[in-house]
Design a protein that fits this description.
The chain is an alpha+beta fold. Helices cover 49% and strands 16% of the residues. It contains nine helices and eight strands. InterPro entries: Ribosomal_uL10, Ribosomal_uL10-like_sf, Ribosomal_uL10_bac, Ribosomal_uL10_bac_type, Ribosomal_uL10_CS_bac.
Amino acid sequence: MPERFSELPADSSADRLVFRPVRLRRGVFVCPGPFPPVVVQAPGRSHGRPKIASRKEARPMARPDKAAGVAEIADKFRGSNATVLTEYRGLSVAKLKELRRSLAGNAEYAVVKNTLTKIAANEAGITELDALLVGPSAVAFVTGDPVEAAKSLRDFAKANPLLVIKGGVLEGKALSADEINKLADLESRDVLLAKLAGAMKASMAKAAATFQAPLTEFVRTAEALRVKREAEQGGAGEPAPAAEAAEEAAAE
């Protein structure tokens, strides 16, 4: 008990009252009463210089939600055949929704945090985006046609200059903003497949005609020989026109 409690007169009514201590902060209490309040330090706490934690002890532990976010972004990097990094500073929520609709079916457009994205990209084996992860960043994770995704981003950036294409990665190779625009100038996969199918169809028709030509000649020659044989068996005289045709066909 503090000394002030013992200083009270024996007949004082204070010794018959119970005053609950009031907590000021952790480990520090004040005892109210009719006398000047007494501040009491909880036992077991150091009153000297506070201990300075080492660098290892002071490092904060990774929060579970951050670890889950890194894992999710890393999975998106691994599951994409291309990624395009953009800056969306100044774009409204409505514009971002419009951009996502234009990319639907080919890419997922996600606003990301630079630090977590850098960690996730490195975990997925991608280091080409490290220097570009500054400012408000959003990534288009392309799972469909990279050409169509590049076209959508380029066209949206032309109509909305606040969208800035920084660069990207295609099949493990780094792409600059100019290279992404050049990629957008290429014909889409569907168009290329249609042209390839047309070329293959024309080649097959040409090959069929080539294979069919000798057979036709053979049939014509066999028919001519048959006519000639029948004409010879028919007797003497001038050869029939059919026989002459057979001789000409045989000569060919």
